[in-house]
Amino acid sequence: MIKESSLFATEGTTRSDRCLHTPSTFARQNLLYVQEVGRLRSLEPHRCVRENVDSYLFLLVLDGRGSLVIKGRDYQVATGDCALIDCREHYEHISDEKDAWKLAWVHFNGHAARGYYELFLKNHPEGNVFTARDAGAWEEMLDGLLRRQKDRSFQAELSCGELLLHLMNRVISSVADTGAPENGQEKRLANRMREMLNEKYADGDVLGALEEAFGEDSRSLSERFVRQFGISIEEYVSSRRLNAAKELLRFSIKPVGQIAEESGIGDMIVMQQLFRENEGMSAEEYRAKWAQWIR
């Protein structure tokens, strides 16, 4: 029989080692910070239900089996599976009746947490659960957070912020590589596309040239590109053009209109929009602040 478990009513259902943390003002404003980190083993089957919690949860199944219900979707998980969850949304985790699980987890938050979560979902449309390639390395990171939290110092808070960034970067890298074949064929193709884009980014019809060179439509090529690099072809080209415009503004005396053409951006209005969105200033203001030849 499965028991219902609230936040702290776990006596007799789990054995856990956990640390709760209240972040400093500095951490709350500037870092990713731990809210709770720990490990638990289910002693008997139980269900935990939560929602409307201002937190993000990363968990790793160390042993056993169970299910996660996230926004109404049921995921069957087992040893080596991971999940990243926005705890403001309804979720449940349910230990298996016959093969009760052992978990390691961290509840965290911070100024960059939402961005990492959205980037995770963008790179992993399959949902909130993925399988760890090296479960031992993930377990080591979570254990590191638990050890540091037991120190209860500001230095530990800084160290945990760094480790959480490493954890989230590893999450994004893992799911961004999920679609790549093991033989590396798709990765080689994506690298060839990137090389061509680096040479021809300023061309007016760079996507058409790419389609002709690789014999596929731009949508298929962009999907391949995203799987390898976590960014669409369109975004990559836009970034390369903007970087080229920055270089010309800083290291040449060419007129801004000419730079818009040579960089591939083409249109002055579009160029000014790109600079305001990415730099918070106009192209002329960027040149005035950064150009080496201006005194």
Structure description:
The protein is α+β, with helices and mostly antiparallel strands and 295 residues long. The protein has two domains: 3-176, Jelly Rolls; 185-290, Orthogonal Bundle (Arc Repressor Mutant, subunit A). The protein is 47% helix and 23% strand. The chain is built from eleven helices and eleven strands. It has helices at 25-30, 113-123, 135-149, 154-176, 185-200, 206-214, 218-229, 233-251, 256-262, 268-279, 283-290; strands at residues 3-5, 14-20, 32-42, 46-50, 56-63, 65-70, 73-78, 81-86, 91-95, 102-110, 129-131. The radius of gyration is 24 Å and the shape is elongated. Mean pLDDT is 88; it is low at 1-10 and 178-183.
CATH-scheme architecture of the largest domain: Sandwich
Structural class: alpha+beta
How many β-strand stretches? 11
**What strand order characterises the main sheet?**
2-3-10-5-8-11
CATH class of the largest domain: Mainly Beta
**Would you list the SSEs in sequence order as H and E?**
EEHEEEEEEEEHEHHHHHHHHH
Helix content: 40-55%
Strand content: 15-25%
- The radius of gyration over CA amounts to 24 Å
Can you summarize the main beta sheet?
Answer: 6 strands, antiparallel
CATH fourth-tier homologous superfamily of the largest domain:
Regulatory protein AraC
Please render the helix and strand layout as text.
Blueprint: E1 3-5, E2 14-20, H1 25-30, E3 32-42, E4 46-50, E5 56-63, E6 65-70, E7 73-78, E8 81-86, E9 91-95, E10 102-110, H2 113-123, E11 129-131, H3 135-149, H4 154-176, H5 185-200, H6 206-214, H7 218-229, H8 233-251, H9 256-262, H10 268-279, H11 283-290
Helix pairs in contact: 2-4, 3-4, 5-7, 8-9
